[in-house]
């Protein structure tokens, strides 16, 4: 690693001496302008009015189709304990089993390094997934350099359904940077990939309040409850707590999830507080 760093000035001089054609388009950014952009983005964020409760966020439904997510000055803002951040909030499909999430963050002149907050259906925070899961992968110059992280969303946490996911960045992460492998610069120059050279020559990429990432949710479509639940349970006579719970278990066993959720609501209406817990335990 140290040897590679010693070659950086030499490699940069080779680049200026002729590794890049005189007709090549100049890079659209630079170390100086990217640092200024990082500063400007943070200043703009600091002056934004933050949404006060998670319930006030506008949640986009997250389906099974992979998608690019752009976080910019037009994104919603929330003031976390870790600092103010732009956010990208998603509502999750009703899962009956755990789902796998993969997030890929391209390394550009700046990087948006996310953390993830999971909320239950009452908008209460039930799990935080740290930015430390994202690791730099600089092996490919055919595709973009990137950071990548993967995590699992359980169907429930502590008896509560995971209903929402909020992507954000902490103030500490916005102050950091992602160190790059100097060997990536050497390979970029070897293959005359001028756009990669322009980005990688800085060795460290600053983190920003804004950026983009590629998000994919991997879940079995058969394990997603669709159109939860216009079904209403009517009983001819009062039921005991155990009878309600047994109806929930039977409906889950028969994979009739709409019916199971209807029984959950009926049990809660009757004053029995463990109906959701029974519902999720029956799926395990």
UniProtKB/TrEMBL annotation:
Keywords: Signal. Residues 1-24 form the signal peptide. Pfam families: MalM. It comes from the Bacteria. GO terms for biological process: carbohydrate transport. InterPro entries: MalM. It comes from Aeromonas simiae. The keyword Endoplasmic reticulum does not apply. The keyword Signal applies. GO terms for cellular component: periplasmic space. This is Maltose operon protein MalM. Coiled coil: none annotated.
